[in-house]
Amino acid sequence: MNIANKLTILRMIMVPFFFLAVYYEKASGFFPISAFIFAIASITDFLDGYLARKHNMVSNFGKFMDPLADKILVAAALISLVEMNLTPAWMVVIIISREYSVSIIRAIAALSGEVIAASKGGKAKTTTQILAVLMLLLNIPFGNIMMWLAVVITFVSGADYLIKNKKLISLD
């Protein structure tokens, strides 16, 4: 197993530790350990993709598990934010719905032998979501504004995926 895939697995392993940190920090309303774990896990997302492309370590495992690990991490963080009343549930529903919709479109494309590459909008979506989660966990001013921005970019990038790949969605 290559280093990129090990980083993907590490990201998934970090999710329960993130939950534990949130649980223990919840009483204080300040989540530095949770934010640190989330930040490190998020860095592994960028690092594993970079290493896989740079060193030609792209694998079928990585193509499937990397996006899954990303979605598990982000969903875990967002659900935690709702539980702590740091963000409204409707925002999280929009974000998670987009993630699963795009995943389904990618799976349909894969069945046809197509690969849908990540878009600039998708990268912006990921960046704003990570920043929003970190800002809210650390009570940084404008964290709510960043969450609004993340929701808007998430929605727009999701609509872009749907429009560009509408041929894959057949109602026949």
From TrEMBL:
It is found in: Membrane. Keywords: Lipid biosynthesis, Lipid metabolism, Membrane, Phospholipid biosynthesis, Phospholipid metabolism, Transferase, Transmembrane, Transmembrane helix. The keyword Lipid biosynthesis applies. PROSITE patterns: CDP_ALCOHOL_P_TRANSF. It is a multi-pass membrane protein. This protein catalyzes the committed step to the synthesis of the acidic phospholipids. This is CDP-diacylglycerol--glycerol-3-phosphate 3-phosphatidyltransferase. It comes from Acetoanaerobium pronyense.
